[in-house]
Amino acid sequence: MTAPTLVPYEEALAKYEPVLGVETHIELGTATKMFCGCPTTFGAPPNTQVCPVCLGLPGSLPVTNKAAIEGIIKIGLALNCTIAEWCRFARKNYFYPDMPKNYQISQYDEPLCVDGYLDVEVDGETFRIGIERVHMEEDTGKSLHVGGATGRIHGADYSLVDYNRAGIPLVEIVTKPITGTGDKAPLVARAYATELRELVRALGVSDVRMEEGSMRCDINVSLAPRGATEWGTRTETKNVNSLRSVERAVRHEIERQAAVLESGGKVVQETRHFHEDTGTTTPGRSKEEAQDYRYFPEPDLVPLAPSREWVEQLRASLPELPAARRRRVQAEWGLTDLELRDVVNAGALDLIEQTVKAGCAPGPARKWWMNELSRRATEQGVELDELPITPAQVARVQALIDEGSLNDKLARQVFEGVLAGEGDPDEVVAARGLKVVSDEGELAAIVDQVIAENADAADKVRAGKVAAAGALVGAVMKATRGQADAARARELILQKLGAS
């Protein structure tokens, strides 16, 4: 059956109300795996970080990683969850080539963290995203499908399996149904994934690199006619691996499901794959229900019973969380809501704060990162924090400006040199000869020469047309390759022409 033409987004939202759900998997950055001592280094040669336990060989027994439990409790506390006093692991049974035991150790009806929330802001409106559960499990291995055009098993010539990832501690965070988002649904989903990533990164329990798979989102979407009392059938788009794609996946599913319903069809409960190149989803498999996994308590692991004392110690150790940090820096730096939003969206908050800690005032720190350096990042097609320059180097450039050794024009040349790998700011200044002309006698001589060479402009200034001094200042700056103090040059010009 040919898929119906998509319904335009605005038309879909005029008739249908979306309900969202987000299931996020986060690999913890522990040194060893969840139930064994194998290392967790990303990018190691295939199948070099495995042992009888994570390969599920007969007779091997798992042992729980305490650091992983500490990590999930921190996440649960930061998400305002209740931490269970007693819970246990379960076996989730299903067959898949990259599942070495043919079951996954997870949690089912007794998760470690429950009933939390995370507030996100979209266009000045706050949405409270309810958290159903945060539970602990082990990651699976990874299949590589070789040949074909899609990288998926269909059409591939053969498949390879790497079990290095099998057994890495994996936290799953499941939201409650997200309602009332209306036409902001894609933006709310993206804002939630963004805020969650920043929160986990602040906790220091994961690098949450979506491009490396250490944070992956499954996006649930359903539509119901406006005014209906029951929600529609949901689909689950699996393993969405960028914030932009979270937004695009929600938008596409709204348009696609609206088209199915408008054509008289029924939305099928299934998993779907998101395609980065087209921004579309395609069917995966029918969605299993809980009974299909045949959950039962894991017999080889003792229950978890974190003491209240330990939980409170972890609560006291939590760092400043992103929302509180934003409120603090906004007050300290005197930013408007729009300015703060621009800084956050540019990924510049950390960089600016580190630059301030290195001794730079907030205003110049924000100016350089949000203007000059942001422009260069865009030109190079990289993220701001991927530029080969450090906050300390930016702070040093501003210090040279503050002490009168550089002006803004020269500072841009210094940034250019640092980004080109020519060394630290002081080395670039020395190598390129970029210091401001600060010798009063030298500057006065240059001013005299410029006045002599630009008699018409000088006569206009003498006649009271002070604006004409701008051309003379420009000539001074040209003569000094931008290294003169423009303000002092103007003062000298006006003095010498009797217009001060």
TrEMBL record:
Residues 350-497 form the Asn/Gln amidotransferase domain. It comes from Thermomonospora curvata (strain ATCC 19995 / DSM 43183 / JCM 3096 / KCTC 9072 / NBRC 15933 / NCIMB 10081 / Henssen B9). Allows the formation of correctly charged Asn-tRNA(Asn) or Gln-tRNA(Gln) through the transamidation of misacylated Asp-tRNA(Asn) or Glu-tRNA(Gln) in organisms which lack either or both of asparaginyl-tRNA or glutaminyl-tRNA synthetases. The reaction takes place in the presence of glutamine and ATP through an activated phospho-Asp-tRNA(Asn) or phospho-Glu-tRNA(Gln). PROSITE patterns: GATB (PS01234). The keyword Flavoprotein does not apply. Keywords: ATP-binding, Ligase, Nucleotide-binding, Protein biosynthesis, Transferase. GO terms for biological process: glutaminyl-tRNAGln biosynthesis via transamidation; translation. It holds the Pfam family GatB_N. This is Aspartyl/glutamyl-tRNA(Asn/Gln) amidotransferase subunit B. Belongs to the GatB/GatE family. GatB subfamily. It is an enzyme of class 6 (ligase).
